[in-house]
Amino acid sequence: MSDLEMAATTELGTHAADTPPAGATPPPKTRSLAADAWYDLRRNWIFWVAAALVVLVILMAVVPGLFSGADPTACNTRRQFAGPSGGAILGYDFQGCDVFSRTVHGARASVLVGLFAVLLTGVIGLVFGMLAGYFGGWLDALLSRVVDVVLGIPLLLAAIVLSKRLAADRQGSGIATVVIVLGILGWTTAARVMRSSVLTARSQDYVAAARMLGAGPLRIMWRHILPNALAPFIVVLTITLGTFIATEATLSFLNIGLRPPAISWGIDIATAGKHVREAAMPLIAPSLFLTLTVLAFIMLGDAIRDAFDPKLRR
Amino acid sequence: MARYIIRRLLQMVVTFIGTTFVVYALMFANQNDPLQALAGDRPVSDNVRQVLTEQYHLNEPFLVQYGYYMQGLLTGDLGRTLTGRPIGDVMSDAWPNTIKLALLALFFATLFGITAGLVAGLRRGSIFDNTTLALTLVVVGLPIIVLAPIAQLVFGVKLGWFPTTAGARPSLYGLILPALVLGAASTATMMRLTRASVAENVRADYVRTARAKGLSARRVVAVHVLRNSLIPVITLIGVDLGTLMAGAIVTEGVFNIPGVGSKLLLGIQTEDGPLVVGFVSVLVIVFLVTNLLVDLLYAVLDPRIRYE
Fold first, then answer.
1. Which CATH number belongs to the domain containing residue B192 in this structure?
2. Which one, out of A27, A115, B95, B298, has a CA that is 20 to 30 A from the CA of A249?
3. What is the pLDDT of residues B74-93, one digit of tens each?
4. Is A152 in contact with B18 (Cβ distance < 8 A)?
5. Which tens digits make up the pLDDT trace of A1-34?
6. Among candidates B147, B157, B137, which has minimal Cα distance to B178?
């Protein structure tokens, strides 16, 4: 990733820094780390591709009607596996539903699950990482052991057990179940990253200064440590969002995630996979969209991380 | 070294108790009536209910049940599935297929990942380097539920190079495509790690010294660069095992391989609590032990690491 970026920027010429392209304002002499990162990011084509994809997916989730006017639930088995037509540009699937429309409408569940699960992960990771990093000592040892235990169970194995348990008590689409499962199991990396940034920030002079001025632990954590520990945390959460969307699709694929009233790429891939000999498009369309969405979030996170990494700056 | 091993072992015991407890609690805490789930729609008579309840300790407090389960796990007795088959038997039937699949996947991942990583690391910025990097990025982002059916479609159905499903007694040839699918993500990460570590080591002082001594380029690369670059890659094998297990569930399902993953999936779908907990516990133990071995191996391979 970083090297792709390097390759991309060296192609632009090493003079880009002193002779900025027309339209871009020359960088001011002193810049904050964030401004520096933004300056790097603006010249990284991978960032723009990923950002465009993310915007596209979110747009699809919010207003699917913009992309496809057809109703994804208006299915008719008489046109099972019918080829592409003016109404359905990708043809029809096993149930006789419009493949393109279903694929577009599938974005909503993925984005919803991803966003809410990441929010939950973020809250848990923030609290755990902040407490462990700031107070240290026995609390750190205890919390780190909890992280070890959760990390000791491979994510999908635990998700299988947990979602099976939760799903038994719930009705409906199952979105809440998947969000809880992913949130409970996926916060460990975020917590570790938060803890290590808090550890670095805690020993800085400005924290000592704030403490001497009489600031309490809560104020120090919120006003002084958090803003300085946030960047790597957000990067991890962006990448986690991508993996969560993939995991949601996997759970739905295994029949323990979202349930049929909800439209999910995972469910459609599972159904289409069984009938792949009859028609390939119902498998290819959701697969492509799922892959692009997951890739977009991972690439976005990677690009931001590279921009914030001073080691990569020349 | 001995102190490190002991500390690491103690850590593992804590993690082990924690993980098994979590898995057990998740599966059994205030669950629906498992006996009814076993019987399906038919009513369960009171006599049968009483016998089964006592047999499975369903009327005991939760912690006592967990105690029974741990006792069984430590003595190698995993109990019986709700259909009455010893779980150990189900497992010993399934393991050979999964181990074959996993070893094959690991073999492909190491072969392709390390070779490509070495070449890319030695020729940074070349076309080969940039292409493989872009490729690995795509592969890492490719969920296995996309990769497995698409590979089946392209190489099994359309091109017909490999059998589409492996069947009850999978041949080695039938396992090649599933293994490539399963190992794809590991190949990509292994390639990136090897590349990064080779690129760093080529500039190391000892490599310059080796060159200055007049050693052949081949010897410098094979003995000095590659061997030192493989240390972080070994850790990855341990970490990747979790991904491999998760992938095995999907891959075995798609290619119809009668392994641990597909048995586990079947257990989940039939609400066979004992089977799921037994399988997951064993998988977690395999995961923990492998990671312990990898950590120890790491300390042996790199004398700079002593973890004091």
1. 1.10.3720.10
2. B95
3. 777 777 776 777 877 788 88
4. yes
5. 444 444 444 434 344 444 445 555 555 566 677 7
6. B147
Which of B 136-175 lie inside 8 A of A, CB atoms? 137-138, 140-146, 148-150, 152-153, 157
Long-range contacts of A35-39, Cβ-Cβ distance < 8 Å, separation of 24 or more: A36/A307, A36/A313, A37/A231, A37/A304, A37/A307, A37/A308, A38/A307
In a domain, B293, yes or no: yes
> Coil, strand or helix: which one is A22?
coil
Token duo for residue A226:
């958090």
In a domain, B51, yes or no: no
- Encoded amino acid at B9, one letter: L
Reported pTM: 0.80
- When mean pLDDT is compared over A173-182, B37-46, B157-166, B208-217, the highest value belongs to B208-217
Domain span at residue B132 reads 96-301
In sequence order, which residues have a C-beta less than 8 Å from that of residue B293 and are 6 or more positions away? B238
Q: Are B186 and B240 in contact (CB under 8 A)?
A: yes
Place of tokens 């924690």: B18
> For chain B, what is the domain count?
1
B118 Cβ neighbours under 8 A, 6+ residues apart = B194, B195, B198, B221, B226, B229
Instruction: Look at residue B91 and tell me if it is in a domain.
Output: no
Backbone angles phi, psi at B165, to 5 degrees: -130, 155
- Alpha-carbon distance A73 to nearest alpha carbon in chain B (angstroms): 23
Tell which B residues from 224 to 243 touch A, by Cβ distance under 8 Å.
241-243
Domains and CATH numbers, chain A: 32-312 (1.10.3720.10)
Q: Which residues lie closer than 8 Å to A95 by C-beta, 6 or more apart?
A: A75, A77, A80, A271
Task: Answer yes or no: are the C-beta atoms of B19 and A149 closer than 8 Å.
Answer: yes
Instruction: Determine the Cα–Cα distance for residues B15 and A218; give it in Å rounded to an integer.
Output: 31
Q: Tell me the CB-side half-sphere exposure of residue A104, using CA atoms within 13 A.
A: 23
